[in-house]
Amino acid sequence: MGVAAAQNLPRLGEDGLMPLSDELRIGVDVARSLYSQPDYLDDPLLVEYVDGIFSRLMAAGRANGSVDPAMGRFPWRVLQGADTSVNAFAVPGGVLGLHLATIGVTERADELASVLAHEISHVTQRHIARLQVKQQRLQPVMIGSLLLGAIAASKNTDLGNAVLVGGQGLAAQQQLNFSRDMEREADRVGMGLLQQAGYHSGGFASMFEKLQNANRINDDGRYPYLRSHPLTTERIADMRMRAPADTLKSAPPDLRHLLMAARARALATKRVDAWRTMQKQALAQLQTPAGSAAQRMAVLYQGAVASLRLQDAAAAQQLQQALQKVTAGMKANAGQSLAQRQQMEQVQRVLRLLDADIASMQGRWAQVASDTQASAQLYRPEFLLYQQSLLNSGKAEQARAQLQAWLAERSDDGSAWMLLAQTYGRLGQGAQMAKAQGEAALAALDYGAALQYLKSARQLTGADLYEGSILDARIRQVQALQKEMDEPLIGNK
């Protein structure tokens, strides 16, 4: 199916949809809750990778018209969670959730892109709003609560049921399960996104096959995605017909993705025994290499990241050196095409960041600076590590200037704001530290906390009229945002 055909799919139950403003507020509420969860993870390297795929898909959606310009105010973001279950979800307002294990089971960017394209399409086709039409008792405020409950239930059934309060809770949750028609629609619109964004359309069929095989082997709760997005025979056959999965099998390995999937598997778990197993498997590769060079690279990198989690810098260093040797061999045998050279450059960049992570654990901040300075203004992972190296080398003023310049163009970077707050703390500037903390809270859509920090900053500013006027204006802006989000939902008036 072409892109144009996907755009013209019939929409079910358009009459009486909740306004987009209500969807926006639901998305903000859910995102705020997800940011506050202990499993929320801002790993700069994984965030950069996933956001790169997401941005390409969104650009394709805007180009082909599947992303309505009226949704421009939506937060539109992917929040990653450290979780060993395979799951992804979308809520009104353009907020997507992605468990790291979902990245970990994929082998190519095309497969991960198919998951994100499908979830984006649930938002753009307004599936939850359309479900509300079928069940009018589901007011927008209830939908928000049910979504949070469903997200919690995917990890902890008892907790999820506790969130689903009210006599209609469980029945209403069932109404949030997308219909077969909506799943097919998300598949087909998502396929259009995938194709226009330049990803291989076989990613859909390949990902479906992985999930189907996993379901056949066991369903022990590790695949909540299959419960909320049931794979019917019809859906699988449809995607196979449009783009067979075997069309990907002859393609060369996606080296960068293999490393990111390995990183996701190591960061998805918090279990020491799991990290030790990953480390043991990687160290065994040093004695008895097994598998292709790409497979060995993934095992070694996974073990190195697990070693960092174990605070075992020596093992991480040993595995990093082994990775360098494998990479050198692959580079020597690689062709001279632009794509192949770019792949190897990406791999080498990942290994430099690994070296920087090891050095930071050991307090070798000069080495961290050496590994990251050249690319610090180009890439977020290097930038944050470089600023940390400046801060820990007694160069807080230099870090402050660079962080301010970075945030002038990227005001939604909460981690950079927190690093700037830490920098102001080192400089003894309490008012500026509180202001930066407020901006970090605002980046996480927590308007209440943002106001508290900004008001504290205003008090600390005292008689400084210039800084005081800047803070007063910012406080009024945040108050206006909070008022807008706190207004009664239209569907609940």
The gist of it:
The protein is mainly α. It has helices at 3-7, 20-35, 44-64, 100-104, 109-124, 127-134, 140-153, 157-163, 169-175, 180-196, 202-217, 224-228, 233-242, 255-268, 272-287, 293-309, 313-333, 338-361, 365-372, 380-392, 396-409, 414-426, 430-443, 447-461, 465-486, and strands at residues 77-81, 88-91, 95-99. Strand 2 (88-91) and strand 3 form a beta hairpin.
Please give the share of residues in helix: 55-70%
The major sheet is characterized as: 3 strands, mixed
The order of strands across the largest sheet is: 1-3-2
End-to-end CA span: 42 Å
Helix/strand/pairing class, anyone? mainly alpha
Shape: globular
On the 0 to 100 scale, the average pLDDT is 86
Radius of gyration: 24 Å
Number of domains: 3
> Number of DSSP strands?
3
**Uncertain regions: pLDDT < 50 for 5+ in a row?**
1-14, 157-176
Task: Count every helix, treating DSSP H or I runs of 4 or more residues as helices.
Answer: 25
User: Hey, roughly how much beta strand do the residues contain?
Assistant: under 5%
Helix-strand pattern: HHHEEEHHHHHHHHHHHHHHHHHHHHHH
